[in-house]
Amino acid sequence: MPRMGAASMDERPGLFVRAVDRDGGSIEFTIDGSPMTARAGDSLLAAILTNASLLRRLEFGGEPRAGFCLMGACQDCWVWLDDGRHVRACTTAAVAGLGVRTTPPALAEIRNV
Amino acid sequence: MSNVVVVGGGPAGIRAACMLAAHRLRPVLLDEARNVGGQGYRAPSPGLRLDMDALMGGEAAKYHALQAAFASIRDQIEYRPGTLVWAIEGKTLHVATDEGSSTVSFDALILATGAMDRIMPLPGWTLPGVFALGGAQVSLKDQGCFIGRRVAFCGSSPLLNLAALQYRKLGADVVAVCDTTPLGAKVRAAPQLAAAPRTMMRGISYLTSLMRAGTPMLHGVTLLRIEGKSRVEAIIVRDCRGRERRFACDAVALGYGLKPEAQLAELAGAEMRFDATSRLWLPKIDADGRAGRSLYLAGDSVVIGGADAAEASGELAARAVLSDLGIVHARSVARGLRRRVFRLRRFQRALARAFVWPANRVKDLSDDVALCRCENVSVGEIRRAMDQALGPIEVNRVKAITRCGMGRCQGRVCGPALQELVASHAGIPIEAAGRLRVQAPVKPIPLSVARTLAE
Ligand SMILES: Cc1cc2nc3c(=O)[nH]c(=O)nc-3n(C[C@H](O)[C@H](O)[C@H](O)COP(=O)(O)OP(=O)(O)OC[C@H]3O[C@@H](n4cnc5c(N)ncnc54)[C@H](O)[C@@H]3O)c2cc1C
Ligand code: FES
Q1: What residues does the BFD-like [2Fe-2S]-binding domain cover (chain B) (predicted)?
Q2: Is there a smaller number of Cβ atoms within 10 Å at the N or the C end of chain A?
């Protein structure tokens, strides 16, 4: 994944940009197995979207989605976790050690074959 | 003692709980959110170094007052955050928490469930980087994050300029504010808006601050499409002189005002009727918020009125509960509140003329535009289903055939546009196209909860 820096803005991997700082330390988690860093207190959605430009891919067609209402109404932000849980990212707190998957487990397994 | 339950911890629900607590009723306050305050007066998540006073400007005092009011009644009520009410049967609420599902019974129920953005789709609106306008504010207040670095604010809503200004204040690049309502319509609504001079002046000051800062402010635009390969790269609009303009950006905030979250009210038995001003079906209430036996509605969940109306209508609904329980309270105060709520809600009707829902745009949407995000149903699929011999012209039938509105959001996002599409394609008035009916659960319940229910 491209890293942020002097490179052009569109190479910035995350959609979200932090406007203000947080107290509290950083936490480690993974997206599709790749290590990522977020901040304690982040929602799972903010944790993912400050690192990546999508939350999940649609089961059919694989179109990327990144949530929409950010208030628990549209249900566009449900992501799978490595432990099999399916959670609504905008209303779930990010915790250290979470493994997020952008594709449903079955689809991910097929791709890995 | 009577068991009074309030659903929703925004300004309406908090003021209702305060009134009930003052009469020692020890109400139960249920809120899906983990932090109190609702949408407009949402408190930042823990540890966020956000200066709410700077962000909220003139409204900061009201925010602090509401949070303080809640703190002062905290141990006189039973507050249960993180609690979703997902169904209502008789006098029983079905609730879900992280721990599982349970029920809460009530003698009187006040619903103060707020509102969400109303959306008219456009090509590219499902791309990552397009968010609801209210969501753009939530990400800032709740998470201290911009939805992107270069953001276009598009649609038509009193919150459009406010959100754009909040983003600017904190250092985002606001590439344009594209209001789809022509300036002329705003000027024509001005005499009615002058009924609330402070609110009108606040609106004008947002506009002038943005203009002084050099933000392109467009009125009367048509939003043509959002472009991008796997995320937003630009928005293309047609300005009021007919010129096509392209604004490079990495995020778009989109909204056309708010629509009530009235699903629980409907499940609880409130009568729904068509409101011609907003072109929405709204619960029917009396002047105090009564919607049926033991059922009271307050705040933006009934009709959009804004935060001040939410506070006043919350207290008013609680006073109606007191009256109906035969508990003495100051009736003269209730009369004042009734007038205030009436005035504030009437003002919002004038606002609807200054920030117009673009009902006609639905006709111009090309067949390949997704209407339903959940089930990925396109505008063309709906038109084709309707065009068949004996094809449906009623929204619930269209829903059953196409699955549009049947997904996880229960038509919250696509509902208003679907109703417009069905009406316009059938060539009938929108109220004749029917009303999307709600079903429990009003929001998806976690699998663990569904499992405990199955056992
Ligand atoms: C996303 C968004 C952002 C907004 N931002 C602003 C702003 O910055 N400034 C402004 O002036 N106005 C803003 N508004 C307008 C806002 O609607 C009003 O100002 C005000 O918050 C309305 O108050 P309320 O008490 O009626 O509802 P809300 O404040 O919306 O509170 C409703 C509460 O009900 C809870 N709830 C809903 N359904 C359920 C359920 N089924 N079970 C349990 N709990 C439930 C919600 O979690 C929420 O806490 C915003 C609106 C939205 C939708
Ligand atoms: S983004 Fe809409 S529910 Fe999470």
Answers
A1: 372-423
A2: C
Q: What superfamily would CATH give domain B119-256?
A: FAD/NAD(P)-binding domain (3.50.50.60)
Residues in contact with ligand 2 by the CB-under-6-Å rule are A 67-70, 72-77, 88, 90
Asked if A99 reaches chain B (Cβ–Cβ under 8 Å), the answer is no
> Ligand 1: which atom is nearest the Cα of residue B141?
8
Interchain proximity B261–A88, CB inside 8 Å: no
Query: How, if at all, do strands B130-132 and B251-255 pair?
Result: parallel
Per residue in B175-202, pLDDT (tens digit) is 999 999 999 999 898 888 888 888 888 8
Right CATH for B359-433 from 1.10.260, 1.10.287, 1.10.3230, 1.10.10: 1.10.10
* A19 found inside a domain: no
Q: Say which CATH number the domain at A45 has.
A: 3.10.20.440
| Residue-range domain boundaries for chain B | 4-116+259-352, 119-256, 359-433
Subunit contact A22:B128, Cβ cutoff 8 A: no
β partners of residue A100: A31, A81
pLDDT digits (tens, 9 = 90+) for B316-357: 999 999 999 999 999 999 999 999 999 999 988 888 889 999
Q: Which residues of A touch B126 (CB under 8 A)?
A: 63, 65
Name chain A contacts of B140, Cβ cutoff 8 Å: 19
Question: Which residue type occupies A36?
Answer: M
| Host domain of residue A33 | 26-107
What is the SS3 string spanning B39-91? CCCCCCCCCECCCHHHHHHHHHHHHHHHHHHHHHHHHHCEEEECCEEEEEECC
Give this prediction's pTM. 0.95
Query: Cα(B286)–Cα(B49) distance, rounded to whole angstroms?
Result: 43
To 10 degrees, what angle do helices B183-193 and B197-212 make?
A: 150
